Amino acid sequence: MGSHIIKRRYFNKVTETREVLDGQYILKIKVLKALGYETVDAHWETWTSPVITIDRP
User: Fold this and answer.
1) Which residues contact 18 (CB under 8 A, 6 or more apart)?
2) Distance CA 34, CA 41 (A)
3) What is the CA radius of gyration of the chain?
4) 52 near 27, Cβ under 8 Å?
5) pLDDT at 56 over 70
6) Residue 2 — pLDDT band, cuts 50, 70, 90?
7) Are 53 and 46 in contact, with CB atoms under 8 Å apart?
8) Nearest in space to 50 (alpha carbons), one of 19, 29, 20
9) At 4, is the pLDDT very low, low, confident or very high (cuts 50, 70, 90)?
10) DSSP letter at 3?
11) Taking 80 as the threshold, does the pLDDT of residue 32 lie above it?
């Protein structure tokens, strides 16, 4: 499998999307609360996904 990087712009920031190898992954998503400070841990919401399996034929 070759490496693919896709660059996109969201909210004036460039993000990179990468293709991953087959395997099991867990996503952790963090979101800063409205009017929150990035330096205060309590101002962040966090969600962790169940295990995601990538198994291409």
Assistant:
1) 3, 4, 5, 6
2) 13
3) 15
4) yes
5) yes
6) low
7) no
8) 29
9) low
10) -
11) yes
Query: 43 exposed, middle or buried (CB, 10 Å; 0-12, 13-18, 19+)?
Result: middle
Pairwise CA distance, residues 4 & 2, whole Å: 6
Task: Give the dihedral of Cα atoms 40, 25, 4, 1; nearest 10 deg.
Answer: 160
DSSP 6-45: EEEEETTEEEEEE---SEEE--EEEEEPTT--TT-GGGEE
Q: What is the pLDDT of residue 47?
A: 95
Residue for token pair 């693919």: 4
Amino acid at 32: L
Distances (CA, A) of 28 to 2, 3, 15, 47, 50: 25, 22, 16, 6, 10
